[in-house]
Write a structure and sequence with these properties.
heterodimer, A: mainly alpha, two-stranded antiparallel ribbon, two-stranded antiparallel sheet, B: mainly alpha, Recoverin, domain 1, 2 domains, 11 helices, 4 strands, globular, Transmembrane channel-like protein (chain A), transmembrane (chain A), TMC_dom (chain A)
Chain lengths: ~900, ~190
């Protein structure tokens, strides 16, 4: 009670304070305080109020004379609360009528008779009477069924409106009644009630949009509620600032939706090709957003600080193009391969200096580099997992296939489709899906030659495995060959030999899926299963290629490190010779000035890795665009214009127009992202490149889809596969961070390039920072925390937690299933009960009729009113 | 409202925003499209006849277009003509951010061809025919149709009264992963 009153205090407007002051002067000893609602009037009627208050006090005192004071306090609180609850309930019911009224009515209209029967049972006394009534109603039903059907929806609406009005009027009436009962005076509970009502109205306003009412009614209700709230909110002391915030919020929302890029483009595609093609573009946009953030991280925290505050170009060997390459460092061919000046710039790992703090900001460059690398991966994990969880939530745990047919029926139409061609395809695919489902249900699908099918499937898988192995070997072979070429010097080789690796990888990625497609024709799978196999195989192919590439790179890294060892030795010799030479010439000049371009340097494997990835991305992008232009655009143009002078119908026949391959494109996007994650640590420019690529892809693919693709033959649903793609992305993320983390943790960094040069491992930068930038105790705490004695129990705890959560989720699922079963059985029982009740009622009715036909006279004598009723019924029955 | 005033009132606009799941831009776009539909006809009309609404490219290839018009129409003549407010109701129910409840409610009414508040065998048959297209070769055979409908009733008719009512329908729909994403119409 105390808290409640306290709470109310803050809500009472200023102009009520004098009144309240009176209150406390006069009624401080009373528990049942009276608060006036309308202060302005009250101020004028001070005396009257005093009198009234006295009167009330007297009444209250009289009422509670019998009970002790403390008890009275508690006792009074309770009923008051109870009453409030009751009122709330009543209000809710009143509203519920408006809300659920329609649903109920639909049932009511249909189950009119059933309801009546049930009523019969509940009330034995009036049973017979009501039976007749029921019959009459039934007869009337039969007579006016046609009419009713015609006018039903109209009636419904009217009813609805009436009900709504009634309920609102009821509320108003209540208000007025209360106002009449106690004019100008509202007790705290009434104030409370009013507040509740206002809150309820507000809730109504906020949920109004979610109600299936026609707009006119919604408008009416809204205006009414607004008026009500405005009228009483002032009395309750809430400002109008809320309205302003609502408007601001809405404007902000509008602004936000206006800011979402490519919304109109995607909507256009959506309306042409349905939601599955659009889902690819939404995925692309999502990817673009993630890459924007990754780009922001690397650009803002690594590239820009180094470019602005780090040592300038040419000040150190790692920041200078070596003398041997200087002549063609600016050639386009070299730059295109990200050699020359591009190699010795902020774009790659090797350019960064190991100086601990740079510039006047004392920016910790190596630390920042390391943390950005880690943060990139951590952020990606977080986003992917969060999206997956949200998607899983949206699925609503669609784990059961118990509604297979109903879903096909009720949810298979894609309302976005606005293109007749797509609609035709959709019709066809829905029909086949119906037929397939029926066939599956009948289980009449028997393979006539199961051995042949099995053999063919095994053969197909064998062929696919051969393809995968072959492509893996090819890549390995090519990478090793390219290393040989690189050792011999790139200049002596042709363009093809220089770009062999990337070209081979891209070509494999292009042609192998087609091969798989051909092979999968052998298997004779259901198209949906075939698609899954196809996706799985392409996934395996890409993954295999990527990992072969990485293994080959690892070999190269080891080679470079050996080279580095040799070079280190040579360096000391070179330095010694330098000293010797200078000593011989001039012994008095201690600073030996050698231009940084002339100093011999290590091979810097990190930059090499970065370069490889950047080249891979560029060539991949190029192939994608070129295939798009040739495979889609050129084909479409040829088909379109050669069709006039060709011997068969090109548009309907063999080449036709290309379809948009959603799954293939999504896979391409996912692998591209995997390469970004893998290479971003060694080439900070990768996210920037990817942003550019995705941006161009968005426009190019949107254009290509709209101008030269036809809708898919089989229209697949988007959302069902959403989490499938996300899961793929997660797997790729994991697999691509694995090698990156491996190289970071196990391979020592190059001695003369990159932010970690001079350290034995890259992560030593953390320890260094802890030692020199943080107080000693922090380092101690950290070392304790990283002690295996503490880490292992923690890991154990996490495993336990995962186990616990999994088992609880399992048990929840179980409980869910059981509840479902219960619900079903209960429904069936109810159904049975109502059926039995109906039978019983029918029997009773028969009995009654028999009895009446046996002794009509007696009954007439017995009860005149009943008789008349029956007579009426009889006439109706005869009619 | 859709008469000569090409611009919606500010108050009305904000009220519409409060009452629908649409943003300001979407409402304005809807108004523009709606007045385009009206412009050829007499401008004093407030409602657009069904044939005009059906000519919208967004609805043109939808097999349920007539049902949609009938469900959202509030005209007394039962001719499926839409006022601007009905049109907004339609777009709101089919918008991206509309809730599952409202979507499933309207879906039920769209599928309820005879407006009797339940989906019975006849409704389901008409629904299947809508989904399989107008051409004869894509239609299901009567045997298949019977099988299909009995399967559907077996699944979703929980109280076994031979029809699917609204709550059963919503129960089925709420578990479907695709419904919310496909029950959408955007201008």
């Amino acid at each position: 009670m105390y808290f409640q009153r306290n709470f109310r205090w803050q809500e009472i407007p200023l102009h009520l304070y004098p009144v309240l002051y009176f209150f406390f002067v006069f009624t401080a000893d009373e528990e049942d305080t009276v608060i006036d609602s309308d202060g302005r009037q009250e101020r004028a009627k001070d005396k009257e109020r005093k009198k009234e208050r006295d009167r009330k006090r007297r009444r209250n005192v009289a009422r509670r004379a019998s009970s002790a004071r403390k008890e009275g306090k508690e006792l009074e609180d309770r009923p008051e609360r109870e009453e409030r609850r009751g009122r709330k309930k009543r209000d809710k019911e009143g509203k519920g009528k408006g809300k659920g009224g329609e649903d109920e009515r639909q049932e009511e209209v249909k189950n009119d008779t059933v309801a009546k029967i049930q009523k019969n049972f509940s009330n034995e006394n009036t049973r017979k009477l009501e039976q007749k009534e029921m019959e009459v109603v039934g007869e009337e039903d039969g007579d006016t069924e046609g009419k009713r059907k015609n006018g039903r929806s109209k009636k419904d609406e009217k009813k609805e409106d009436k009900e709504k009005h009634e309920s609102s009027e009821e509320e108003e009436d209540e208000e007025e009644k209360e106002g009449e009962e106690k004019p100008d005076v509202l007790s705290p509970e009434e104030l409370e009630k009013l507040k509740e009502e206002v809150d309820e109205r507000k809730k109504l306003i906020s949920t109004l949009r979610g109600k299936p009412w026609p707009m006119r009614k919604k408008l009416l209700t809204l205006r009414e509620s607004h008026e009500f709230v405005e009228k009483y909110e002032g009395a309750l002391g809430k400002g109008k600032s809320r309205k302003l915030t609502v408007i601001c919020y809405r404007d902000f929302e509008n602004f936000k939706t206006a800011c979402v890029p490519w919304e109109m483009k995607i909507k256009e595609i959506e309306s042409h090709f349905g939601s599955s093609v659009a889902s690819y573009f939404i995925f692309l946009r999502w990817m673009y957003g993630i890459n924007m953030i990754l780009f922001g991280l690397t650009f803002g925290l690594v590239m820009v600080p180094e470019a602005l505050m780090g040592r300038p170009y040419g000040s150190m060997p790692r920041k200078t193009v070596p003398r041997a390459d200087e002549a063609n460092a600016m050639d386009f061919a070299v730059l295109w391969d990200f050699g020359g000046y591009a190699q010795y710039s902020v774009l790659f790992y090797g350019y960064y200096n190991s100086q601990r703090a740079i510039g006047w900001l004392k920016f910790r460059m190596p630390l920042s580099y390391f943390l950005v690398g880690v943060g990139t991966v951590a952020y990606s994990y977080m986003v992917v997992i969060r999206t997956m969880a949200r998607n899983a939530n949206e699925d609503g745990g669609g784990d059961n296939n118990s509604f297979n047919f109903s879903w096909k029926m009720f949810t298979s139409w894609d309302y976005l489709i606005g293109n007749p061609e797509t609609a035709d395809n959709k019709f066809a695919s829905i029909t086949t899906s119906f037929k397939e489902a029926i066939l599956e249900e009948q289980e009449s699908r028997k393979d006539d030659n199961i051995h042949l099918t099995r053999f063919l499937r095994v053969l197909a898988n064998f062929l696919v495995l051969c393809c995968l192995a072959g492509s893996g070997y090819l890549i390995y072979f090519v990478v090793r060959r390219s290393q040989k070429f690189a050792l011999e010097g790139l200049e002596s080789h042709s363009w093809w030999e220089r770009n062999e690796v990337n070209m081979v990888m891209s070509l494999l990625g292009m042609f192998c899926p087609m091969l798989f497609d051909v092979i999968s024709a052998l298997e004779n799978y259901h198209p949906r299963i075939a698609l899954q196999w196809q996706l799985g195989r392409i996934f395996a192919l890409f993954l295999g290629n990527l990992y072969t590439f990485i293994i080959a790179l690892m070999d190269e890294i080891n080679l470079k490190r050996e080279e580095e060892e040799v070079l280190k030795l040579n360096m000391t010799i070179w330095e010694a010779s330098l000293y010797n030479g200078t000593l011989g010439a001039n012994s008095t000049a201690p600073p030996i000035t050698v231009h940084p371009a002339d100093i011999p340097r290590g091979p810097c494997w990190e930059t090499m890795v970065g370069q490889e990835f950047v080249r891979l991305i560029v060539s991949d992008t190029m192939t994608t665009y070129i295939t798009l232009l040739i495979g889609d655009f050129l084909r479409a143009v040829l088909v379109r214009f050669l069709n006039y002078c060709w011997c068969w119908d090109l548009e309907a026949g063999f080449p036709s127009y290309s379809e948009f391959d959603v799954s293939g494109n999504v896979l391409g996007l996912i692998f591209n992202q995997g390469m970004i994650w893998m290479g971003a640590f060694y080439a900070p420019c990768l996210p920037a490149l990817n942003v550019l690529r995705l941006h161009v892809s968005m426009y190019l693919q949107c254009w290509a889809v709209m101008c030269c693709n036809v809708p898919q033959e089989r229209v697949f649903k988007a959302s069902g596969s959403n989490n499938f793609y996300m899961a793929m992305l997660l797997v790729i993320l994991f697999l691509s961070t694995l090698p990156a983390i491996y190289t970071i943790v196990t391979i020592p960094p190059s001695f003369d390039c990159g932010p970690f040069s001079g350290k034995s491992r890259m992560f030593d930068v953390i320890q260094e920072t802890l030692e020199s930038d943080f107080p000693a105790w922090f380092g101690k705490v950290f070392s304790y925390a990283s002690n295996p004695g503490l880490v292992l129990p923690f890991l154990l705890l996490m495993v336990l937690a995962i186990y616990y959560l999994q088992s609880t989720s399992k048990s929840y699922k179980q409980a869910n299933l059981e509840l479902k079963k219960k619900l079903q059985t209960q429904n069936e029982e109810n159904k049975k009960k109502t059926k039995m009740a109906a039978q019983k009622a029918a029997m009773d009715l028969e009995e009654a009729q028999n009895a009446r036909s046996e002794s009509p006279r007696q009954q007439r004598n017995n009860n005149a009113s009943q008789q008349s009723y029956r007579g009426e019924k009889n006439t109706v029955a005869f009619i | 409202m859709g008469t000569t005033a090409s611009q919606l009132g500010k108050d009305l606009l904000s009220e519409y925003q409060e009452l629908t799941f649409l943003t300001k831009q979407e409402i304005l776009l809807a108004h523009k499209r709606f007045s385009e539909l009206l412009s050829k006809e007499d401008r004093n009309l407030t409602s657009v006849p069904m044939e005009k609404v059906l000519s919208l490219p967004e609805l043109k290839s939808n097999p349920f277009r007539k049902r949609i018009c009938h469900v959202f129409s509030t005209s007394d003549m039962k001719d499926g003509s839409l006022t601007f407010e009905d049109f907004l109701d339609l777009l709101s129910a089919f918008s991206d951010s509309a809730t599952l409840e409202i979507k499933s409610h309207y879906a039920f009414r769209i599928f309820d061809f005879d407006d009797d508040g339940t989906l019975d065998g006849g409704d389901l048959e008409k629904l299947v025919n809508c989904l399989t297209g107008e051409t004869e070769d894509s239609r299901l055979t009567p045997e298949e149709m019977r099988q299909l409908i009995s399967n559907i009733l077996e699944e979703s008719d929980i109280d076994k009264d031979g029809t699917v009512n609204l709550s059963e329908f919503q129960h089925v729909i709420s578990r479907s992963p695709d419904f919310v994403s496909s029950f959408k119409i955007v201008l």
